[in-house]
Structure formats: structure tokens, C-alpha cells
Design a protein that fits this description.
alpha/beta, six-stranded mixed beta sheet, 23 strands, 52% helix, flat
Length: 791
């Protein structure tokens, strides 16, 4: 199915195609654009639209992406196929195309997850590395065969440069010679018939033996090849012939390679041309500020704030709909008010959408697929055919009536014009009635008042008008659907200076029916304007609300930013506390090592004192980080089974027993059961979400240890003092994590470290028992400890 070329021309579709051609980079892409026709397959149209959308997104997100380098190499492929020799410059064009193909395929391979429709074009494109490398090696960027194309060519060109250098050197010596200079017309060396010559004055011809190859137009200068360079020039020509033959051989071999890959090259070219065409559609969409319309097959059109793509400057957008509540729209209003532009906008939008192009309208615009698009726009009167304006219109309409059906869109400008108004209006109503009976979607413009009443009395026909400002006597170009237009003839005449009594006399000559219709139209227009004003007011309020919401969200973000800053400051303070205690702990550890070196029974007592100091420091640190602001949890508010939060390690636990008289409560956290003071816990409401865990400071350190602790500790390589310190810390962490047993690896060695560890674990308050590891546990090199938990 193909649309009438006259319809495409009337709706100026060819101008859109011309704009699309300009957006394509390659000749092949432009050719595809020039042949673009609207489709009648919905699935195909939707696919085309989606391809254009994906191309736009690629250009937006990857501004450096380009399809540049696509060349028209079809003639070179054809020449190679018939045994011809491809020129070096044409090989460069083939190389550029291969590079463009490879880079495009690589781009979509890396970034193509979101652009499956575009990736589909490149999936079957093959790479031709052999041909690409051959061209790169044999052809220079200037379009010449490279010296490195073959060893023979390199040898011949070196020899040729040597011979040419010798010939020039001999001639330069002659030109510089005092005895020869008086015979020369100019002190230069030039070339005639591919041989080096010097210009000799006519009268001194016999003084310089040689071969004359040319003379000047006046005959005063002879271009002579001196005998001293004849032999060199002859040898040079021989080498040049050999060099030319070698170049021809290389180009022939490369041309045969092109012929071998001719089908692959054609496929590559077709793919790149298609992609160039799609990206051309994307560029056109961006240039015209277009969007992808929603497509349907219900005959429903809704254009939201549509702008005719060919109008320049500030364009008043049009909102128009058709096909849901009514099938026919009758537009009335003054000349130059925009009726025809609205008509063409709808027709051009439908053509563009069915051709897979985006339309310049807002999001939500919906376009239907039509099997036939017909237009009667403009005056086609012909002197040769004796056709008047009315006859030309009617001839066109007769043809439309014969072809239109329920899946057609018909656009008619100045329906019924060019004949007696009464008869013209009657014909127009009869034509519209026929289209309504068919279910054809129709938009018609007219000046006939009878058609306004016709539309008002027919539920499948709707009035519309273009607004006119009687104050400025200028059209506003706004389309008002649902409001019939009025001529404003009386008001315009009065403002232009017609006497008031003449205006009133003219009014009195109107029939009562005409006056009633005029009043009805005025009331409808007033109501429409009020509704439009209310809509604009609601829109303004909506925008204001959005602005206020944006301000509130900004304030919320600022509050969150300040909150984050406060938390960060608190984390820094906690970090400073941890750093301070770590330094003190290191100092104490150093003191421990010093005491260990002492001999005597007092060492154990001193160690115990230091350990107590460490415990006090840890308690003080935790109190600083978790400063309590309350006296503790009310024991009456606790019940067995309640969930509580152990503040110092930020872990949940369950109450096992009611608080005792000392204000202590027995809880279980994981497999660990402990007795805690009421002030060290807080109650958790089960219906609320768990409080956000502390992400910094001591709480994080303790909870991380409890989560990540392993059931073995490797002490090999440490001194006894270091091993004891690490073991004590490890046993505390094991207890917090609730592990039932742990393996302390100390190695066999002399036994000193094993004995020290054994003494330590046997006295540790969290250890129930210890033993040497079994056969599969490491034997004497491992001590296995079992932890003590109250059950």
C-alpha cells in the first residue's frame, strides 16, 4: 500500500524528508532517507520509533559516539568484482568503512545492553582484519602505494631516487658552471616528457649537445636534455616502468582480496547505512525537540502541545484530539487564523509517526495508524482542464469518497467553498454525514455557519475554532476544541471605524435564528475561555505546589546533611577517645614486658594490678562513648521474653529472668547468657524496626569482633609476652561471640610457649577446661579450650 504523492506534497512531507537527509552522514544513509515511506504495519512502526528513541539516548549519553568514516565504496566493490583494479584512494575509503564498522560493533558490544534494537544490526557484521591490515600496510594516508608494500617496490623506489638524484646533481653542476650559464635562459632544472632538461637559448643550441624535448611558445627557449644525463634519464624511465608494473601488481592482488570479501563488504555497508539512517532520525528528533508518540489502531488521535515542524520562530502549540468522543472535527474561524496549519499539523504528524519519525509534541501524544490518508488542501484549478476552484475541490473529494473507509483519515480545507454558500453548505453537510456513517476520521475547515449548527446537533461531530483577539484585530493561533468560531465581522468593522448606526442596522438584518446561534456561540466561547482560565490556574497552582515541595525537600536534605555532619563529628570524637586509650594500652603493655623481665614472685601481683587498670580504662572509655542520660530501665516495665538492646555492644538480647534486688537482669544474646545491670540495657518495641546500628566508634569495633571472630588463634612466631597478651584479648572476643571452644596454635618448639598458654587458660575466668589437641587437631602444637557460659 502506498500513499498518493499529491497528499504527501500537500502535507509537505517531502520537506521533512529533506531535513532527514541533511541529518544523515553518509550517501547511503541519505538514499535510505529519501525513499522513506509511511508504513501500515503497527509492529514495524513501533520498532522504528523505538530505534529512533534508542539512537537519541546513545547520542545524549555518549556525545563522542560517531558513525563518521562511512564511505560509498559500492563502485570500488563492483570494479573489483569484474576484475578491475581499485585505485589507492578508493582503498582508503574501504579502510575508513572497515574502521567505522569495527568501532561501531565494539561500541555496541560494550554499551549495547540497553540498545538491543541497535545491537541487532551489528550482531551479524563480520570483521575483515586481513583486508584492513593489508590496506593499512600497503596504502599511505596520502592515497599512495607505500614503499613497504613489497621488497621489490622498496628496492625499485630506492634505485629510482638514486638515479633522479644523480641526474639532478649533474644538471645542477652544469647550471652552476660559468661556462654554461651564458647559454641558459634561466638557471633552473625542469622536466619535459618525464625527463630532466635545462632551458637553453635558441642561438646557443649547438653549444650544449643533447636532445631537444620542447621549446617555448616564442621559440626563444629550447628545453634540452644534455648528453651527460641521457643515459641516466633512460635508465630512470626503465626503473619507473618497473615501479609502475610492481604497483599495478600490488593493487591487482589487493583488488582480488576486495572481490573475495565483496559480499561481506556489501553487508557491512548496508548495516552502517541503516544505522546512519536511524541516527539521522534521532538527530532530526533532537533538532525539532520531538518525542516518541504512543501508537494505536483505534483511530484515536491526541496531539498535546504539537508544533508544526516546518514553522520558524515562536510557534503557538496546538492541542487537538479526534476519534474517541467524535469522529469529525469542524474548524471555523477567520482567515490567517491557523485553521489550515492545524489541519496540516495533524496530517503531517500522522505521516511522520507512520514513517517511524518522532513528532514535535509533548509526552502523552497518541497517534493512530491509518490505512489511508487523504487531503483536499489548496486550490488546483486548471485553465487547460476548465476546472474552477469549486470543480477542482469537488473532483478531489469525489475521489476521496470512493476510497475512504473506517480506517482512513480525511483532511479537507474550506469544505464546500467556491460556489453558492447555501448550496455549498448543504453539500458539505451531506459529505460529512456520509463520512460519519463510514466511521471515517475527518477534520474539515469552513466558514459556513450552517456547519456549526450541524456539528452541534450531531453527537459524532464536534466544533472547533481558532481564537481571534478583537482588541488587537489579530489571531492568537490557539485552537479551541468544543467552541464554534464566530466571524466577529461586526466587532471588527466597528473597531476599524464603521459608523455605529451601520453596525446596528446590520445586526437588525440578521434573522432570529442567526442571532440565537451567534449568542449560543458567544456563550460557548465564554464558557470555554473560563474553563481554560480555570485550567491554567490549576496548572499554576500545581506548579507552585511542586515548587514548594522542592523547597521542603531541599530543607530536608539540608537537615540530613547537618545530621550527617553531627554524626561524623561524634565519630571523630569517639575515634580520638579510642586513639588515646590505645596509646595508654601500649604504654601499659610496654610496662608489662618490663615486669616480665624481672625475676621474683611480685611479678604476678604487678601484672594483676596492670590488668585491673586496663579493665578500668576500658570501662571509662565505654562510659565516655555511651554517656547515659537516664537512671536505667524501670524493672516493672520488663517481662520475661522481652527484647532488649545491650548498649555497649549494640546487640539484641532476650530477657530470661526478672531483675533481682541488685538491679541486674539475666539475658541471652545468641548463645551467650550474661547478667547485666538495668542501666546497660534498653527495651526494644517489637512493632518498631530495629534501631540503626552504630557504624562507628567502640560499638562498631566490638560488634565487628563478635561477628568476624575465628575459632582459632595462631601464636607462632610471637614471644611469650606477646602471645599472652594476644591470647587474653582473643579469649575475651571468643566469649563475646559465644563460641563454645577455641584452638590456640602455639607450635611444639621447646614447650615454653605451650606451658605459658596452658597456665593462662587454666586460670582464665571464661575457660572451663583445656586440653592438648588430638591427632587430627595439631597434637602438642595446639591447645583446645572450652568456654564457660552460664546455662
Amino acid at each position: 500500500m502506498k500513499l498518493d504523492e499529491k497528499v504527501l506534497r500537500k502535507l509537505e512531507y517531502h520537506k521533512i524528508i529533506k531535513m532527514l537527509e541533511e541529518k544523515c552522514s553518509s550517501i547511503m544513509g541519505k538514499e535510505l532517507a529519501s525513499t522513506l515511506q509511511p508504513s501500515f504495519n503497527l509492529e514495524e512502526i513501533v520498532s522504528w520509533q523505538s530505534e529512533t528513541t534508542q539512537a537519541k539516548e546513545v547520542m545524549r549519553l555518549f556525545p563522542n559516539f560517531s558513525l563518521g568514516g562511512i564511505r560509498d565504496i559500492r563502485s570500488s566493490i563492483d570494479k573489483a568484482n569484474i576484475g578491475g583494479i581499485v585505485e589507492p584512494s578508493d582503498f582508503l575509503m574501504i579502510y575508513d568503512t572497515l574502521v567505522a564498522s569495527r568501532s561501531t560493533k565494539n561500541f555496541f558490544k560494550t554499551n549495547g545492553q540497553k540498545y538491543q534494537l541497535l545491537v541487532a544490526y551489528t550482531k551479524d557484521v563480520v570483521s575483515l582484519p586481513q583486508l584492513e591490515q593489508e590496506i593499512k600496510r600497503n596504502i599511505t594516508t596520502e592515497g599512495e602505494v607505500s614503499d613497504n608494500a613489497s621488497p621489490e617496490l622498496s628496492h625499485l623506489r630506492k634505485k629510482l631516487r638514486s638515479l633522479q638524484g644523480r641526474a639532478r646533481e649533474k644538471l645542477e653542476n652544469m647550471v652552476r658552471s660559468q661556462s654554461i650559464q651564458k647559454y641558459l635562459q634561466d638557471f633552473i632544472i625542469t622536466i619535459r616528457n618525464d625527463r630532466y632538461v635545462i632551458p637553453i637559448k635558441q642561438e646557443y643550441r649547438s653549444q650544449v649537445p643533447g636532445i631537444i624535448h620542447d621549446q617555448s611558445a616564442s621559440g626563444a627557449t629550447l628545453f634540452v636534455e644534455p648528453m651527460s644525463v641521457v643515459e641516466i634519464n633512460s635508465e630512470t624511465q626503465q626503473v619507473e616502468a618497473m615501479e609502475k608494473a610492481e604497483v599495478t601488481r600490488i593493487l591487482r592482488e589487493m583488488s582480488q582480496l576486495v572481490a573475495t570479501y565483496s559480499q561481506e563488504l556489501k553487508d557491512i555497508l548496508a548495516t552502517l547505512a541503516q544505522l546512519d539512517f536511524i541516527f539521522g532520525k534521532g538527530k532530526l528528533s533532537s533538532a525539532l525537540d520531538c518525542g516518541e508518540p504512543i501508537m494505536n489502531q483505534r483511530g484515536y488521535i491526541r496531539i498535546i502541545q504539537g508544533r508544526h515542524p516546518l514553522l520558524k520562530g515562536t510557534v503557538v502549540p496546538t492541542t487537538i484530539w479526534l476519534g474517541q468522543d467524535f469522529e469529525t472535527l469542524v474548524i471555523t474561524g477567520p482567515n490567517t487564523g491557523g485553521k489550515t496549519v492545524a489541519l496540516k499539523t495533524v496530517g503531517l504528524f500522522v505521516l511522520m509517526a507512520q514513517a517511524g519519525l518522532h513528532v514535535p509534541a509533548q509526552v502523552g501524544t497518541e497517534i493512530s495508524l491509518f490505512e489511508g490518508i487523504f487531503a483536499d488542501i489548496g486550490d488546483e484549478q486548471s485553465i487547460e482542464q476548465s476546472l474552477s476552484t469549486f470543480s477542482s475541490h469537488m473532483t478531489n473529494i469525489v475521489s476521496i469518497l470512493q476510497k475512504a473507509n473506517a480506517r482512513s483519515l480525511v483532511l479537507m480545507d474550506e469544505l464546500g467553498a467556491g460556489t453558492d454558500p447555501t448550496e455549498g453548505a448543504a453539500l458539505a453537510m451531506a459529505i460529512l454525514e456520509y463520512f460519519v456513517s463510514l466511521g471515517t476520521k475527518v477534520i474539515a475547515t469552513t466558514h459556513y455557519s450552517e456547519l456549526k449548527s450541524f456539528a452541534y446537533n450531531n453527537e459524532r461531530v464536534e466544533n472547533a475554532s481558532v481564537e481571534f483577539d478583537v482588541e488587537t484585530l489579530r489571531p492568537t493561533y490557539r485552537l479551541l476544541v468544543g467552541v464554534p468560531g464566530k466571524s466577529n465581522a461586526f466587532e471588527i468593522s466597528r473597531r476599524l471605524g464603521l459608523k455605529q448606526e451601520l453596525v446596528e442596522r446590520a445586526r437588525s438584518l440578521l434573522s432570529k435564528e442567526e442571532v440565537r446561534v451567534a449568542d449560543l456561540i458567544e456563550n460557548l466561547e465564554t464558557n470555554q475561555l473560563l474553563s481554560e482560565r480555570d485550567r491554567q490556574e490549576a496548572k499554576k497552582l500545581k506548579l507552585d505546589a511542586r515548587e514548594q515541595l522542592s523547597i521542603v525537600e531541599g530543607m530536608e536534605n539540608e537537615v540530613n546533611r547537618k545530621k550527617d555532619a553531627i554524626i561524623k563529628k561524634a565519630q571523630q570524637e569517639a575515634l580520638e577517645i579510642v586513639t588515646k586509650v590505645r596509646r595508654e594500652s601500649e604504654a601499659i603493655l610496654k610496662e608489662v614486658r618490663g615486669i616480665k623481665k624481672k625475676a621474683g614472685a611480685e611479678s604476678q601481683e604487678e601484672l594483676q594490678e596492670i590488668k585491673e587498670i586496663l579493665v578500668k580504662k576500658e570501662t571509662h572509655l565505654l562510659q565516655e562513648v555511651f554517656q547515659e542520660t537516664d537512671e536505667g530501665l524501670d524493672p516493672d516495665k520488663l517481662e520475661i521474653g522481652d527484647m532488649v538492646l545491650i548498649k555497649r555492644i549494640n546487640q539484641k538480647a532476650q530477657v530470661l529472668k526478672m531483675p533481682n534486688e541488685s538491679g541486674e537482669v539475666f539475658v541471652q544474646a545468641g548463645v551467650m547468657k550474661v547478667l547485666l545491670k538495668l542501666k546497660d540495657i534498653s527495651k526494644i518495641n517489637e512493632e518498631k524496626k530495629e534501631k540503626k546500628k552504630d557504624v562507628s566508634g567502640i560499638g562498631r569495633i566490638v560488634s565487628t569482633k563478635a561477628r568476624d571472630i575465628k575459632n582459632e588463634l595462631d601464636l607462632r612466631g610471637l614471644s611469650v609476652d606477646e602471645a599472652i597478651f594476644e591470647t587474653e584479648k582473643y579469649l575475651d572476643d571468643v566469649f563475646l561471640a559465644g563460641l563454645p571452644n577455641a584452638y590456640i596454635i602455639h607450635g611444639k618448639g621447646t614447650g615454653a610457649l605451650r606451658n605459658a598458654i596452658k597456665d593462662l587458660v587454666n586460670k582464665h575466668r571464661f575457660v572451663t577446661s583445656s586440653r592438648i589437641g588430638g591427632y587430627n587437631e595439631g597434637g602438642n602444637g595446639v591447645t583446645v579450650v572450652e568456654m564457660r557460659y552460664e546455662r
